[in-house]
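Please decode residue identities from the backbone states below.
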């Protein structure tokens, strides 16, 4: 059912542990404004605020202009740990949703970040375990200090990400197998379609 994604996130945020709230506040205060300066916004009707398409643990940012819409989802841990991942894509006018009966074409106003041609995970560039995680999953001796550092790392990568989204994701990225396509970008194996589907249709 459609609703308001921003309100759903706020309700979810109010139930979080203190350190996860701190992480969410850092994202809202330090990361979201950088995107807004470049024409992105948080839309209450993102993915029509469908509980099927988008969870309450997500901050979505989208620029609704151009032939493909640059789209970013900042996804917090469902178990409320202070950790997040950043997914990004370019959404064409017609997107694709996987259903029990196979792929189904949907308009991009109904789509989330994984329902375009492919989606990518922003990475720290270290190619180690949990390279796409920002925050911490278990314990930190100085949790707020740790989270400050993680957000500083994320903030340092945003100009690179915005440049990619401004120019358009390189076609060569879609043609590569799932995995790292660039130092800071990982093509998710969960992407709905890869390059052969792009050329041959759904």
């Amino acid at each position: 059912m459609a609703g308001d994604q921003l309100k759903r996130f706020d309700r979810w945020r109010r139930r979080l542990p203190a350190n996860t709230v701190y992480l969410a506040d850092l994202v809202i205060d330090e990361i979201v404004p950088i995107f807004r300066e470049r024409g992105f916004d948080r839309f209450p009707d993102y993915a029509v605020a469908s509980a099927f398409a988008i969870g309450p643990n997500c901050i979505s940012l989208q620029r609704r202009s151009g032939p493909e819409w640059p789209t970013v989802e900042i996804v917090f841990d469902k178990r409320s740990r202070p950790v997040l991942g950043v997914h990004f894509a370019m959404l064409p006018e017609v997107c694709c949703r996987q259903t029990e009966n196979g792929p189904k074409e949907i308009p991009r106003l109904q789509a989330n970040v994984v329902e375009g041609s492919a989606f990518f995970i922003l990475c720290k560039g270290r190619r180690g375990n949990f390279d796409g995680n920002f925050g911490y999953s278990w314990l930190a001796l100085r949790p707020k200090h740790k989270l400050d550092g993680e957000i500083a790392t994320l903030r340092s990568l945003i100009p690179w990400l915005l440049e990619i989204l401004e120019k358009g994701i390189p076609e060569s990225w879609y043609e590569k197998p799932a995995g790292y396509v660039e130092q800071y970008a990982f093509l998710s194996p969960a992407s709905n379609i890869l390059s052969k589907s792009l050329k041959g249709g759904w």
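Observation: The chain has one domain: 5-200.
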